[in-house]
């Protein structure tokens, strides 16, 4: 029984890691621009697919690094082409633009890679390797994903808190006009936020690809869960997104223990709706700060 | 300078006019065939090879002078596996394009949506989907070339009996294919002495199923049976092995695409599933009646598209070639062709030997399937 409990917990952690690392990407762009980038899932897909293609002639770490770099360039280009030239766009307009970008990217990926499903090899071991921790089995890839998300979150937080560039990006999020008056090149900060979040998305796509597998259409499904945990944690807070990711993952996993799987997604969506009604600032968000945000 | 420009324009216009006048005359000499396939979207594993196969075969038939001198004009509509699109395409093909016959749809859900439309429009429909309900009850104009789920389920149960497995855990996806399979498994289990301890339905876009397989482990199942056509079927077997559930894993015939075995890597070894002989054409004994058909199609497809052949592309082959044989015998008369298909006997296709009748619009039996497994990353006959 206790062994079973921990096995479900491991399943929950697996789901949670996937959701969390995707959720972080939403927060970076939200932090500098105040918009939700609905093409975030496509960055995840692009990262995974590119890495799989590059892995044919590059060693795994190099393929992942190159895929992340290429997706970052694409993220930057997307911002420059579709968003940079807009004068004070409304939130609704931005949302529709990012949805458009998402569809465009997905279709381009379909033409480029076809409809086949791919995956990077497991970083250590293979598809059947698992570590036994007192009778509880866990795939080493889950630990890789956990570790890499943890490092990514810590680095991001350090970047936003202690570097000049990170502070400028945050200033841009707090008040774009004021930041601009202080001499911060706000447009470049927005481009940079797209580059960063594309990078995080691509990294997520690479580390989860052995678990989830990658296909041109995988982005939207992952984005919904990532978006849910970003909201659940409180938009703009990467640490909170990670915590919320684990909460959602573990809830889903334990729900399967006691009731049919069919209800799993219903639970996720109910939580999202309840959150939006009751506490739109998120579990860990500041209500006061949230009220001051412009929409 | 300007004069020459006008001159060129006049020429272009007259060429366009001449061509467009010539077209209807050409169309009169051809046989219009429609195809409604899920070329993209979640069921693109089915639709894409089907569409490629049809294009390849039609090109080949036309290059050899067509059917009794008439060329085939093929119109493929991509539904993206959306039943609503299948409905509007079916109406368009029947009412506007007035096609001779329709091949597809790729999925059972879409086929059921247009079964009545084809019947009322008196247009022959050759579905590439598997569900039994497509041909039971019989609709005069509706046929299907994919073997029924029932045959696959029976094949699996025979294998389980052979291995002494009686208590199983069933997983299925929330698609038409998954639901139809689940129903058949649950309906046929008791008469084969199989007990289903746990039955879980997961989302078609599931990215990890560790919790679901943990539930099966807790119930101490003797085997896992998974029924889906999505990439999730590769994830299932990885998760089963990762949590240390060391029991045989059975999959549906949806697993008969080497992509899934590749995606699951080491976890795919030893997985048991029923499938058409097409995908093991190489190792099929040379005196088997299907040998030359499956090898011929496999070589043509793999040579042209540089990808492995799949059962589903084979359904496209069977549907078109059954139609072509009837057309060759009876000419482009819809009513005669329909009865020719209904009375066709011993047509050797990729899925098996088809023998249709007025009460059987599928024409296949349990022998359409062979029990396969994965050995060293390749499909092989199971012991």
Task: Explain what you see.
The complex is a heterodimer of chains A (295) and B (383). With 295 residues, chain A is mainly α. Chain A has helices spanning 2-33, 40-54, 60-83, 91-113, 140-162, 164-174, 176-181, 186-212, 218-233, 238-258, 264-278, 287-292, and strands spanning 131-133, 136-138. Chain A is built from twelve helices and two strands; from the N terminus they run ααααββαααααααα. The longest helix of chain A has 32 residues, at 2-33. Chain A is globular and about 60 Å long. The mean pLDDT of chain A is 87. Helix content of chain A is 74%, strand content 2%. In chain A, strand 1 (131-133) and strand 2 (136-138) form a beta hairpin. Chain B is α/β, with parallel strands linked by helices and 383 residues long. Chain B has two domains: 32-147 and 293-366, 3-Layer(aba) Sandwich (Rossmann fold); 150-275, Rossmann fold (3-Layer(aba) Sandwich), CATH 3.40.50. Chain B has a five-stranded parallel β-sheet, with helices on both faces. A four-stranded parallel β-sheet of chain B has the order 7-6-8-9. Chain B is globular and about 75 Å long. Chain A binds chain B through residues 4, 7-8, 10-12, 14-15, 18, 110, 114-119, 121, 126-130, 132, 137-139, 208, 211-213, 215, 217-218, 221-222, 252-253, 256-257, 260-262, 264-265, and chain B through 40-42, 44-45, 48, 174, 200-203, 205, 207-208, 210-212, 214-215, 217-218, 231, 234-235, 238, 241-244, 259-260, 263-268.
Stretches of chain B where pLDDT is under 50 for at least 5 consecutive residues are 19-27
Helix content of chain B: 40-55%
Helix content of chain A: over 70%
Q: By helix and strand content of chain B, what is the structural category?
A: alpha/beta
State the total count of DSSP E strands of chain B: 14
Shape of chain A: globular
N-to-C order of helices and strands of chain B: HEHEHEHEEHEHEHEHEHEHHHEEEE
What is the N-to-C order of secondary-structure elements of chain A (H for helix, E for strand)? HHHHEEHHHHHHHH
* Named CATH architecture of the largest domain in chain B: 3-Layer(aba) Sandwich
The CATH superfamily of the largest domain in chain B turns out to be Response regulator
Class of the largest domain in chain B in CATH? Answer: Alpha Beta
Radius of gyration of chain A: 19 Å
Main sheet properties of chain B: 5 strands, parallel
The beta-strand count of chain A equals 2
What spatial form of chain B do the alpha-carbon principal axes imply? globular
What is the count of helical runs of chain A? 12
Helix/strand/pairing category of chain A: mainly alpha
């Amino acid at each position: 029984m206790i062994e079973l409990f921990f096995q479900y917990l491991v399943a929950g952690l697996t789901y949670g890691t996937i959701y969390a690392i995707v959720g972080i990407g939403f927060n970076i762009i939200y932090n500098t621009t105040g918009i939700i980038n609905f093409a975030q899932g496509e960055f995840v897909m692009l990262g995974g697919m590119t890495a799989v293609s590059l892995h044919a002639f590059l060693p795994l770490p190099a393929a992942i690094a190159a895929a992340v770099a290429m997706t970052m360039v694409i993220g930057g280009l997307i911002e420059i082409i579709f968003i940079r030239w807009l004068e004070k766009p409304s939130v609704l307009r931005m949302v529709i633009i990012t949805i458009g970008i998402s569809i465009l990217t997905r279709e381009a990926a379909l033409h480029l890679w076809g409809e086949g499903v791919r995956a990077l090899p497991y970083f250590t071991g293979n598809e059947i390797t698992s570590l036994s921790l007192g009778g509880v089995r866990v795939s080493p890839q889950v630990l890789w994903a956990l570790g890499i998300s943890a490092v990514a979150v810590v680095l991001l937080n350090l970047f936003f808190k202690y570097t000049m560039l990170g502070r400028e990006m945050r200033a841009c999020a707090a008040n774009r006009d004021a930041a601009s008056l202080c001499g911060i090149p706000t447009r470049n900060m927005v481009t940079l936020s797209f580059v960063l979040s594309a990078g995080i998305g691509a990294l997520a796509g690479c580390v989860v690809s052995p678990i989830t597998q990658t296909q041109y259409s995988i982005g939207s499904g992952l984005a919904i869960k990532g978006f849910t945990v970003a909201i659940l944690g409180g938009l703009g807070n990467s640490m909170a997104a990670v915590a919320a990711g684990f909460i959602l993952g573990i809830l889903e996993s334990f729900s399967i223990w006691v009731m049919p799987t069919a209800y799993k997604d219903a639970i996720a969506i109910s939580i999202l709706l309840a959150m939006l009604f009751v506490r739109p600032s998120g579990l860990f968000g500041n209500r006061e700060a949230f009220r001051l945000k412009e929409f | 300078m300007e004069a020459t420009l006008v001159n060129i324009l006049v020429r272009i216009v007259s060429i366009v006019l001449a061509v467009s006048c010539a077209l209807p005359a050409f169309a009169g000499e051809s046989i219009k065939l429609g195809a409604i396939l899920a070329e993209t979207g979640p069921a693109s594993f089915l639709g894409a090879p089907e569409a490629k196969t049809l294009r390849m075969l039609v090109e080949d038939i036309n290059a050899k002078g067509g059917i009794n001198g008439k060329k085939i004009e093929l119109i493929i509509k991509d539904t993206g596996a959306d039943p609503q699109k299948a409905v509007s395409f079916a109406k368009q093909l029947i009412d506007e394009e007035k096609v001779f016959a329709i091949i597809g749809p790729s999925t059972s859900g879409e086929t059921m949506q247009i079964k009545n439309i084809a019947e009322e429009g008196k247009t022959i429909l050759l579905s590439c989907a598997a569900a039994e309900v497509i041909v039971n009850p019989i609709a005069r104009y509706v046929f299907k070339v994919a073997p029924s789920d029932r045959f696959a389920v029976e094949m699996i149960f025979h294998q389980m009996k052979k291995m002494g497995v009686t208590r199983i855990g069933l997983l299925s996806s929330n698609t038409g294919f998954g639901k139809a399979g689940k129903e058949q498994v649950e309906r046929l289990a008791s008469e084969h002495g199989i007990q289903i301890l746990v039955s879980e339905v997961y989302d078609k876009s599931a990215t990890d199923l560790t919790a679901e397989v943990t539930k099966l482990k807790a119930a101490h199942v003797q085997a896992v049976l998974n029924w889906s056509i999505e990439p999730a079927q590769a994830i299932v077997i990885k998760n089963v092995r990762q949590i240390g559930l060391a029991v045989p894993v059975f999959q549906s015939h949806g697993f008969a695409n080497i992509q899934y075995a590749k995606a699951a890597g080491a976890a795919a070894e030893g997985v048991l599933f029923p499938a058409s002989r097409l995908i093991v054409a190489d190792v099929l004994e040379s005196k088997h009646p299907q040998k030359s058909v499956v090898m011929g199609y496999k070589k043509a497809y793999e040579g042209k598209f540089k990808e492995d052949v799949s059962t589903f592309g084979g359904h496209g082959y069977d549907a078109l070639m059954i139609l072509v044989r009837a057309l060759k015998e009876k000419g482009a008369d819809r009513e005669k062709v329909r009865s020719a298909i209904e009375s066709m006997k011993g047509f050797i296709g990729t899925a098996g030997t088809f023998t249709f009748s007025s009460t059987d619009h599928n024409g296949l039996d349990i022998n359409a399937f062979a029990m396969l497994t994965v050995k060293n990353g390749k499909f092989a006959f199971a012991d």
